[in-house]
Design goal:
single chain, alpha+beta, Rossmann fold, Fusion Protein Consisting Of Minor Coat Protein, Glycine Rich Linker, Tola, And A His Tag, Chain: A, Domain 2, 8-stranded mixed β-sheet, 7-stranded mixed β-sheet, 13 helices, 39 strands, globular
Amino acid sequence: MGKFCLIMSLCTLLLMFAGTQPAGAKTENQPDENADKTLSPYFFIRSDDPAVDRLPLKSTRAEVKIAGVMADVTIAQVYKNEGRNTLEAVYIFPASTRAAVYALRMTVGERIIEAEIMERQKARQTYEQAKKEGRTASLLEQQRPNVFQMNVANILPGDQIKVELRYTELIEPKENIYEFIFPTVVGPRYANLPAQGAPDTQKWVENPYLHEGEPAPYDFSLSLDLNTGLPLAQLTSPSHEIAVEYSGQTQAHVTLKDDKQAGAKDFVLRYQLAGDRIETGLLLYPGPEENFFLMMMEPPQRVKPESVLPREYIFIVDVSGSMRGFPLKTAKVLMRDIITNLRPSDFMNVLLFAGGSAVLSPDQSLPATEANKAKAVSWIDSQAGGGGTEILPALKRALALPKTEDVSRIMVVVTDGYVSVEPEAFELVRRNLGQSNLFAFGIGGSVNRHLIEGLARVGQGEPFVVLNEAEGPGQAERFRRYIENPVLTGIRAAFEGFEAYDVEPQALPDLFASRPIILIGKYRGRPAGRIVVTGKTSQGAFKKVVEVSKAGPSPENSALQRLWARHRIMRLADLNNLEEQDERIKEVTALGLKYSLMTPYTSFVAVDTIKRADGQLVTVKQPLPLPAGVSDLAVGEQRVKMAGAVTMMRDSSAFKPQAAPVALKEEKKTEVKLNVIQVRGDLNRAEVERVLENQTSLFEQCRLTASGQAQTRPAGEASYRILIQADGTVKEVTLIKSTIHAPRIEACFKKAMERLTFIQSGQGDTEVVIKITC
């Protein structure tokens, strides 16, 4: 018993250390290796040891120039080695999902090295060889369409190295509002993929993070020059405090005011043109080998249909650890607004997910009565947030829910998107959506827009991003307007006397929102003829004509070639997510090499010609701040290595089957068994068994961690009485009897039960008795 207490005291000290120090790893800031661990983010441990290398990234600056509907962005990253060792810096950072990254430049002292675009594997080999030879080199790789990794090798003590990358993107207005987004930080991604043998494109998930509220360890700044060509009516930023200097009616210069959290949330700029106009027309670029065009056409005015079919809403809501705090609070406001405004003729259901999932009504959707709406809102409001983000099982379960007959089904996913399974999610939705439409709400200052926009794209819906709680009601209203008022269907584009080819998109989707119709492609010969767009509105046929000859070709529109290639690459990548083909991979690679673009299969590499180091270096992963408003539970695990002992701290959730901590060496694992002895009240016995089955590993974690490093685990049985309230939350837990004789374990079991959430089927309390055997 004395040995047990001593070990528990040591563990307590380790946990206290974890609470006051950000966690760390391999060298100074990478996790200790374990063959059985999964890829996951971790907390950074800051060291005061002068022998330890300082963090290399010193500043990130974005310079943005927007002309008309095209934005050109330069990101300058400055790395400085203030330590004693030669470094390799690894930095994960985001970009827009629409970004066409086309250039990279590295400055070492007075030397400027322009990067080359290469096939991904060749670029990596070139970089590794330069690193081995002691040459300063930089490598830019795409890990996701909106996530990039920068490696800079052989940064000598005292060195300052500047790396600049450039990208361009198209700004598409929605409801007459133009929006430019500059993502600033990659939020932590939940993954259950084993670290050992993980593919190169997944390893970035294992990245260090600072604790909640800690500012970025590097300076962040942004300046933006806007030239709209038409008079500006309004210019605002819902994300940051900005300073604006106007130069006439069509130009503005935007900078950020001082904000410690500026680099921990996406920068968003919104503006409108005078008269609520959309800049429509045709842009032409006569290239040396190929000619390109971009047509942007204003849609018809929104007209309400005379009759609207009843709708069935399936709300899929993320209640994981990363949603805890501001994101979940905002999600509750959003869901309350949408659900309470459903019509009496509508139907509804709710699926909550974290590590597991639960459905409000598993057998069928409920009529949108006042009582049912109140029940759904109360259930969502009762969630606190915790656990991982197992979105794939949740989507699969939601897509398999029985469909109500003679209604239009609308699925709504609400999440911050902090997962690493985007391709799998897109494929699942594409294959199983049927006649439904899927809409995705991303909530938070730095959501995973690749997931949010991708789900909406494959789901034939629309993405929505809610930056803060104040935006919730407005986005809910926008969602209602969107689904109730279709604009244009059966859209077709014809080219008369204009020899267009390789046009993107190949098929135009139905238009539900007030956003323009956009075509981008190539053309041969003289720019003449016209482009004719037709379709159907609720009031009849629609037709609009653009005269090509009225548009003047201009070399200033050279970005069109990269924007076209980016559109083509995105479509091919979507198809590869569905079914990967070697021919499509070759085509994407060829497009990246031809147009000097980052793709999943091409990378930029810059290598200095001068050998500067002996090839011996320390790799440092640059820690990232948690996105503003995101809880430490987004990382969910702390690893602290001290005197050879490893202590693990994890969050928990009513829906997450928690993985046990690292098993002790030479220990044979014995699973905890949960048995339902008695259920008295309105709650369904099967619901109790389902929740407990999902949480077995959480109780196993209690058995392992509460007994510390003891060589033998206490065994026996413990019975508990649980009082469950009408809203499904646990009101009281009482220990009836126990033969385990381990108060810490018994208390941990009790605390785990207090966190459970059930789907209550009646109006009264329910008493449950369970037996835990270990």
